[in-house]
Amino acid sequence: MLNHKVIIRPDEVIVDGKALAHNEQGGTMLTELYRAHVGDYPKFFKMDTLSKLGFVASELLLQAEGETRFEPREDRAVVFFNRCASLQADTAYQATIQDPENFFPSPAAFVYTLPNIVTGEIAIRNKYYGETSFLVLPDHDPEIMAQQLQLAFLDTTTQSILGGWLDCVDEDHFEAEVFLMYKTESSISKTNNKMDELIYTLKQQIIEALNLEDMKPEDIDENASLFGEGLGLDSIDALELIVLMEKNYGIKLQDPSQGKEIFKSVAVMADFIQKNRTK
Question: Which superfamily, per CATH, for 2-183?
Answer without folding.
Answer: Thiolase/Chalcone synthase (3.40.47.10)
